[in-house]
Write a structure and sequence with these properties.
With 254 residues, the chain is mainly α. The chain has a two-stranded parallel sheet. The protein has a two-stranded antiparallel ribbon with strand order 3-4. Strands 5-6 form a two-stranded antiparallel ribbon. A hairpin with a 5-residue loop joins strand 5 and strand 6. The mean pLDDT is 93.
C-alpha cells in the first residue's frame, strides 16, 4: 500500500527507466482510482495466476488465461475498469492492452518472455522467439500471422497506411503511456474530470510527453479551476506560445 501513489509512480519511472515493471506501474496507476489499493496483494494475485501455468510457453500462458475466462469486454469496452489492472484481474475482462499486460506479467513470472505489440488500434502479443506469429487475447487468444494482423488493422480504419513496422515490439514505457491514454479517453467519455486530471498528470511523468498532451492537460486543469497547475504544465513545455497561455492562466488568479 502506498500513501502517495503519485510519488511512488514518479519514483518508479525515474528509477526503472526503460526497464519499467508493467505490473507495478499499472497498479500504481490503479491506486489513483482506488485509494488504499494494496499493490503487493495484487502482485500476489498475479503470482497465483502464474502458478497455475502448466505449459511454460506463450501458447501455455494464453491457454491458461483463456481457460480461466479472461476475455475482451465487448459490451462495456470504454469502461475505465477495463484499463485498471485490479479490475481486469477480478472481472477477467479487459481491453486488448490490459489483457496483454496480464499475459506479459504471467509470462515473466514463469520465464517466458512475451512482448507487447502496439499495433495502432489493437494491441497484440508475441513470443520473443517468433517474429511472425501474434496472439489476440481480446478475441479468445487467436493466433495471427502478419497478413492476419494486416486484415485486423485494415478493418479498424485507423486512417494510417499499413506497415509491418506497426508490428514491432513496444517497450514498457510506451505501453504505460498508452494505458494512461486509454484511461484518459475513458474518463473523458464518462465526464470524470477529477480522474482525467490525474491520468494526464501521470502521463507527464513519463518521458516523451508531447506539447499537445501538455496543452490537453492544461485545458482540463484550467476547466477544473486549477489555474496554477495548468500554467505550470504549459511552462514545462518550454515553448513561447505555451508560456503566453500560462501567463493568461496565472492572470485569472488575480
Amino acid at each position: 500500500m502506498h500513501d502517495d501513489p503519485t510519488a511512488a509512480f514518479a519514483s518508479l519511472v525515474a528509477r526503472a527507466g526503460d526497464e519499467l515493471p508493467l505490473d507495478e506501474a499499472a497498479l500504481l496507476i490503479a491506486a489513483h482510482a482506488r485509494p488504499g489499493l494494496d499493490v503487493a496483494a495484487e502482485q500476489a494475485a498475479l503470482d497465483d495466476l502464474a502458478a497455475g501455468v502448466a505449459d511454460p510457453s506463450l501458447t501455455g500462458v494464453c491457454a491458461h488465461l483463456v481457460e480461466l475466462g479472461f476475455a475482451g469486454d465487448r459490451e462495456t469496452y470504454h469502461d475505465p475498469d477495463n484499463s485498471l489492472l485490479p479490475a481486469v484481474l477480478a472481472r477477467r475482462r479487459g481491453i486488448p492492452l490490459t489483457l496483454a499486460v496480464v499475459a506479459m506479467e504471467i509470462g515473466r513470472r514463469v520465464g517466458v518472455p512475451i512482448l507487447g505489440v502496439g499495433m495502432p488500434g489493437h494491441f497484440l502479443i508475441r513470443s520473443a522467439d517468433d517474429e511472425r506469429t501474434f496472439v489476440d487475447l481480446f478475441h479468445g487468444g487467436r493466433e495471427l500471422d502478419v497478413e492476419g494482423c494486416r486484415a485486423v488493422f485494415e478493418r479498424l480504419s485507423t486512417g494510417l497506411a499499413w506497415s509491418e513496422a506497426h508490428l514491432r515490439p513496444t517497450p514498457p514505457v510506451p505501453i504505460v503511456a498508452r494505458l494512461l491514454a486509454n484511461l484518459a479517453n475513458a474518463y473523458r467519455r464518462n465526464g470524470d474530470r477529477r480522474a482525467l486530471c490525474w491520468a494526464f498528470a501521470l502521463r507527464t511523468l513519463l518521458p516523451g510527453v508531447t506539447a499537445q498532451e501538455r496543452r490537453e492537460m492544461a485545458v482540463v486543469l484550467g476547466s477544473a479551476g486549477r489555474y496554477t497547475e495548468a500554467a505550470a504544465v504549459l511552462e514545462a513545455s518550454g515553448q513561447e506560445r505555451d508560456a503566453v497561455s500560462a501567463q493568461r492562466l496565472r492572470a485569472r488568479l488575480n
